Design the sequence.
């Protein structure tokens, strides 16, 4: 019998703590598949950030260093500079990367560090209980924007991929989603491309993944999936924003 | 590695020489002050290198204003055979004061019985009412200019200091220039040596009874050069 | 004998770090420690190391965290306000047991304060400085030679105990120049870093983390760290003492204040006063036993600091029950550095 589907070697055979309908598990899997396909598992050092993504080391069978909140790109910089032949990626949420860690991501990107950043954008602080994030959509109700995000007082949601694409140090930047099979297949392609940039030492690569957080959005998994494909994709346009080497 | 409960150092050698009467240690301390650009800090550095050439221990503590150019510049230097102790000198036994502001600020701090070497080109000692210190005035700017460059004021002062105190030998000062100056400035060593010699000469003459303040500075410098 | 160099304290730290094998420096400009990043930016590239001027103090310490997690000797340097910013990650590294060197050429505070020599960061340094309850190794050099020697020692101790280590200096020991005999790095046992991240290869996964959520896990981790601090106290205390045998009063101070105090003690001995001198070199672990032993004989201690009284608390906790501890302090600022004459007057006052 031919085996057509299996667990990636880079993932451990354990249950995750993620909520039903959460996209973290999917993004973990795509990342692990990409590691496997480039045969990177044994030379990878992952950088875990703060939030639901902190348990990276429980799910990935790779070396992992935990980072303080928002600092993963700086930690990854230190790792990569000390071990230039290791494969180094960070896995960060939107509160972590786009709020408290804004300086670190901008400057690691601007230096063109040879690392890959997987940025999971679910428009909220998941682990702390669904507070307003820099990526929360206008009008979206969260536990700290109970009347909905107010454009005048709280500004517009930050489009990180567009922002980073303007920096010369960024070699590759794309925004993807995993809400349907078509988007998921494309997400896998772009994550692989981002990894290839690092494997070929072509500079900083970045993939933003739009993801669902049904629990904190107060939605069923199906409704949450629809929200990703709907208002999130409307505001955060999918696509490849930078691909300097046309890989 | 030390064992638990034993100090990393246990020494009876404390900084001042009188502690160990059997072998008196020599100890010199000095304060050099001027405005930025007069070379007060370089003078302190050259002096330290000279003392190190003679195998002595030294400390050099600079202090300067926040300005990058033209602010106040001051350093204290300690030279000793023993343990330096405090690099901070409250009442220096010698002060080299290169301008009026330094004279007014640090002149009163010189230890009774101490020595004050003053650049009379830029500082007027007439209102310094201290009879408990020796004051040597010399027109360092004119002397330096006579040698070729006003920036040599610091070296004239150093020569005078060495000749008066004997803290370091004149030859050591000259050798120290090589250590203290960056390679690209080694071409200026000969003219610096001339300035040191001029300072030495002035003190020798003063000690021999001639008053440097009244001497014709350019002639004096010329003589120092040909000496 | 190798020719003695004549260098600033800040440069001596760099020379010591390079001799100790440090090739990874991450920092951010702040006075009065700028000689360190300037020196490192010039020298590290020649040695095929990595120098980054980070976007912030916070980023710099996290680059240290990342590099040190792979087992290399990594360091950062800063001055008081910058050190405060780094404290988040110092707490992480203490918890994660990642060795590294942090240099604090401290300046006067609180707040922006000034750039003069200060010992106002003693509490921050020895009591952990960040959140959660931990300690790091803290060494307080008092000479240029010690800036060099203790930097090398700090790397060794950091690795031996898997802990961040700090050099706590100030503008006096940072900017002052003295002769330096650049001794080669001591032969310390090579400790196998079986924790360092390298990519699993054929081996087991390695994780460096500080999050412990399992039942009883975090308590056990805290007790483990505590046991390490107790071991440091037992094995690693270092201090300098002189004339403690016949002393009627013991003068104590650390770092630059100790240099000034030492001359004041010498002035007192010149006048026949029986004054002893005790200078802690390790501020954490604090040489408690040295104070206890000395105060079994000498019942008066005068503690001198460039602050309003910080180390004096540890002195009071360490001395014999019946010893009196007096304090004289000059919180720093322009014109506030005490002179030996001033400290001598204090010794006379309490003698």
Sequence:
């Amino acid at each position: 019998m031919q085996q057509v589907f299996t667990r990636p070697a880079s993932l451990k055979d354990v249950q995750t703590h993620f909520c039903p309908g959460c996209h973290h598990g999917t993004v973990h899997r795509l990342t692990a598949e990409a590691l496997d396909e480039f045969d990177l598992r044994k030379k990878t050092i992952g950088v875990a950030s703060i939030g639901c993504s902190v348990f990276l080391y429980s799910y990935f069978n790779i070396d992992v260093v935990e980072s303080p909140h928002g600092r993963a790109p700086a930690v990854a910089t230190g790792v990569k500079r000390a071990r230039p032949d290791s494969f180094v990626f960070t896995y960060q949420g939107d509160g972590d990367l786009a709020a408290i860690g804004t300086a670190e991501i901008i400057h690691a990107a601007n230096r063109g560090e040879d690392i890959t950043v997987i940025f999971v954008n679910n428009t909220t602080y998941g682990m702390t209980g669904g507070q307003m994030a820099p990526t929360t959509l206008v009008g979206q109700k969260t536990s700290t924007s109970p009347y909905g995000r107010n454009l005048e007082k709280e500004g517009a949601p930050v489009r990180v991929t567009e922002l980073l694409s303007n920096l010369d140090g960024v070699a590759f930047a794309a925004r993807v989603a995993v809400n349907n099979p078509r988007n998921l297949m494309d997400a896998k392609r772009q994550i692989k491309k981002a990894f290839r940039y690092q494997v070929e030492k072509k500079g900083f690569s970045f993939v933003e993944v739009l993801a669902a957080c049904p629990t904190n959005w107060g939605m069923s998994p199906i409704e949450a999936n629809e929200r990703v494909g709907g208002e999130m994709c409307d505001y955060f346009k999918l696509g490849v924003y930078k691909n300097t080497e046309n890989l | 590695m030390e064992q638990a409960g034993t100090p990393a150092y246990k020494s009876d050698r404390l900084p001042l020489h009188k502690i160990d009467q059997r072998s008196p240690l020599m100890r010199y301390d000095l304060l050099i002050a001027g405005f930025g650009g007069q070379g007060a800090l370089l003078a302190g550095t050259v002096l330290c290198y000279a003392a190190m050439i003679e195998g002595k221990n030294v400390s050099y503590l600079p202090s300067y204003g926040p300005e990058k150019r033209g602010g106040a510049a001051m350093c204290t230097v300690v030279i000793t055979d023993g343990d330096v102790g405090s690099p901070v000198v409250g009442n220096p036994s010698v002060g080299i004061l290169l301008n009026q502001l330094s004279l007014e600020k640090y002149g009163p701090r010189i230890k009774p019985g101490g020595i004050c070497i003053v650049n009379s080109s830029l500082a007027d000692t007439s209102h310094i009412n201290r009879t408990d210190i020796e004051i040597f005035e010399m027109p360092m700017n004119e002397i330096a200019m006579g040698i070729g460059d006003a920036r040599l004021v610091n070296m004239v002062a150093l020569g005078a200091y060495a000749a008066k105190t004997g803290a370091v030998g004149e030859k050591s000062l000259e050798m120290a220039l090589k250590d203290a100056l960056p390679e690209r400035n080694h071409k200026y060593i000969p003219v610096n040596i001339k300035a040191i010699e001029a300072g030495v000469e002035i003190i020798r003459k003063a000690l021999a009874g001639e008053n440097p303040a009244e001497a014709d500075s350019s002639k004096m410098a010329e003589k120092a050069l040909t000496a | 004998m190798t020719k003695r160099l004549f260098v600033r304290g800040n440069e001596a730290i760099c020379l010591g770090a390079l001799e100790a094998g440090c090739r990874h420096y991450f920092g951010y400009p702040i006075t009065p420690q700028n000689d360190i990043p300037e020196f490192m930016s010039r020298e590290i590239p020649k040695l095929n190391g990595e120098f980054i001027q980070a976007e912030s103090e916070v980023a710099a310490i996290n680059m240290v965290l990342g590099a040190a997690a792979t087992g290399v000797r990594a360091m950062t340097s800063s001055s008081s306000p910058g050190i405060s910013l780094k404290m988040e990650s110092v707490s992480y590294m203490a918890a994660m047991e990642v060795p590294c060197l942090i240099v604090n050429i401290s300046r006067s505070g609180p707040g922006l304060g000034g750039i003069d020599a200060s010992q106002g960061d003693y509490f921050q340094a020895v009591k952990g400085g960040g959140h959660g309850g931990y300690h790091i190794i803290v060494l307080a050099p008092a000479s240029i030679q010690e800036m060099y020697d203790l930097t090398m020692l700090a790397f060794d101790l950091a690795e031996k105990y898997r802990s961040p280590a700090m050099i706590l200096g100030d503008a006096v020991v940072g900017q002052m120049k003295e002769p330096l005999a650049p001794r080669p790095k001591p032969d310390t046992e090579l400790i196998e870093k079986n924790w360092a991240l390298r990519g699993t290869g054929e081996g087991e996964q390695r994780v460096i983390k500080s999050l412990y959520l399992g039942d009883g896990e975090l308590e056990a981790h805290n007790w483990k760290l505590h046991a390490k601090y107790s071991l440091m106290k037992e094995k690693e205390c270092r201090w300098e003492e002189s004339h403690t045998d016949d002393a009627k009063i013991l003068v104590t101070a650390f770092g630059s204040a100790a240099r000034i105090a030492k001359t004041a003690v010498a002035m007192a001995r010149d006048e026949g006063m029986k004054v002893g001198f005790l200078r802690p070199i390790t501020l954490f672990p604090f040489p408690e036993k040295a104070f206890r032993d000395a105060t079994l004989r000498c019942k008066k201690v005068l503690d001198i600091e460039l602050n309003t009284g910080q180390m004096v608390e540890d002195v009071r906790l360490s001395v014999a029950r019946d010893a009196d501890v007096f304090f004289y302090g000059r919180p720093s600022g322009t014109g506030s550095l005490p002179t030996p004459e001033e400290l001598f007057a204090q010794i006379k006052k309490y003698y």
In short: Chain B has one domain: 25-226. The two ends of chain B are 57 Å apart (CA to CA).
